[in-house]
Amino acid sequence: MTDKRVPTLTKKDVARRVAELCGEPIYKSEPWVNATIEAIRDLMVEADPEVRIELRDFGVFEVKKTRAKPKARNPKTNETVFIPSRRKTHFKPSKLMKEALQKPLAELGYSIPEGSADSPAPRRASREGGLASTARKAA
Questions:
Q1: What residue ranges do the domains of the chain occupy?
Q2: Which of 5, 35, 63, 134 is most buried, judged by most C-beta within 10 A?
Q3: Distance between alpha carbon 55 and the CA centroid of its chain, in Å?
Q4: Is residue 88 left, alpha or beta, with left meaning phi > 0 and alpha meaning psi from -120 to 50?
């Protein structure tokens, strides 16, 4: 298994992309990106107790309530613990984003992960004979 890391994009990368799209220098787009992310975060934290933030063609951020878990178990000590109800975040991508992300990797020119059902698996000698050798034996 390879220890290849997925590249991580930061707010700076988002600000750089916004600057490119708007034809502005990055120092002008950075405050807007920071303010937008901070506003979304604040709206989610201030939720009373639930909120739904819908950004068309991007997705929906939600803060939802969870139920208490009176019989959760600590896997280290095997002790039963009580977990109170709390809030959690959820993101649901838009239809546009889902469609873009569901295109097959091969169509986009990316390599297919090893062991994937749609990867061209190397053929083994025992499989090559398969049905053809069975048909020859029957004839």
A1: 9-46
A2: 63
A3: 17
A4: beta
CA atoms in the 13 A half-sphere facing the CB of 88: 8
Q: Is-contact 32 11, C-beta < 8 A?
A: no
pTM of the entire predicted model: 0.68
Contact 52, 40 (CB under 8 A): no
Q: What would the pLDDT profile of 98-111 be if each residue is shown by its tens digit?
A: 999 898 888 888 88
Contact (CB, 8 A) for 36 and 45? no
Q: For position 123, what pLDDT does the model report? A: 47
Q: Where are the alpha helices (DSSP H) in the chain?
A: 11-22, 26-45, 95-101, 105-108, 125-138
Name the residue type at position 98.
K
> Tokens in use for 81?
């613990």
The residue count for the chain: 139
Nearest to 88 by CA among 61, 55, 127: 61
Alpha carbons 112 and 119: distance in angstroms, whole number: 6
